Every structure is written in C-alpha cells, then in structure tokens.
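Protein of interest.
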Amino acid sequence: MKKITLAITFIAVAVAGAIVACNSSTAKTVSDDNGPAFHYTKEQAEHGKYLVMAMGCSDCHTPLKMGPMGPEPDTSRFLSGHPMQVPVPHVDANALKDWVMFNHTNTAIAGPWGVSFTGNLTSDPTGIGYWSFNQFKTALTKGKFKGLDSNRSILPPMPWQNYVHLKDEDLRDIFAFLKSTKPVHNVVPSHIPPTNFQ
C-alpha cells in the first residue's frame, strides 16, 4: 500500500511539474559573460517589444522594400539592419557638408561623419546573439559601438543620447525582446569615414 501511495504521489508531482513547465512564462535563458545567466519571462519580452516599437527602433533597423503603396518595412528582415547585399552608392564628399542622406532602404546614412549603417539587432550571432546585457546597456546609455567601452562612439543618426536615462528594468525588457527575435544572418558593413570618399 505504501508503494502504491508513493507511486501515485510521484506521478502527481511529475504531472504538476510538467504543467508548471508548460505554463511557465520563462521565454529563454541567455548566458551572460559578465555575470550570471540572463533569465527573462515572456512578459518581459512582450513589454520590451512594446518599448522597441514605441521608441521607433524598427524605423531604421528594419530595411524598407518597395510595396504596392511605396516603401514599406521588410518584415522578413525585421530589425536586421542594413542588408549586406545592398551596395553602397558613390557618395560626394562635398554634398555632405550641408546634407544628410538616407539610401532607399533607410539603413545607410551619409553625413559629415561619413556613411553609417544601421546595426543588426536580431538574436543571430551576426546581430546581438552573443551580446551580454552589460554590452547592450553600454551601447544604449554610453553610445559605445557594440557595447564595448574601448570602441568608438556610435555614429549618427542613432539617438542613443535619448536613452541614457532608461531604467534598468526597461533596458532588460528591451534586451529580452531582442534576444527573443527571429535570428537573421546579416553582416552589416563597417562605417565608411569621409576620408574614404572619392
């Protein structure tokens, strides 16, 4: 009788564990090389998506394509940055003294700083797949390229200065959403300094 009761108890605990696991709001665990693993919930990722959309991140980081009504976001490349197969047009250095120009995908921007390209924010390794939360926070609040203190500053038109006062909880939620995105393999070109213009 004790064996039967023990077996029933064991089965009940296993079933309860399975139910909890299936209903858990944990979306993913991401390893963080600057501390403990980064755990986040489905609710955090959903709030992060809300913030990403409200802050307009997709406006530049999702390339445009031509649709029936004109340019529209290419949802198959959501947040993947400047498409690596799109060539960079010839840039006249003289024109950049007074103008800022965007290309047809809205992901390559030429100005007095040269040409900058919007980054890949997807969970792919060519995006932020290997980034730690600390890197992400450094990029958004200190304006450092790839979130590394020793790197150059992030170039215009990225408005990182607007994000310096974001709360850690909001930064974590945004990071959670980006880590949950569909990975898009896309190696974004390096910045072109104005001295390299012809």
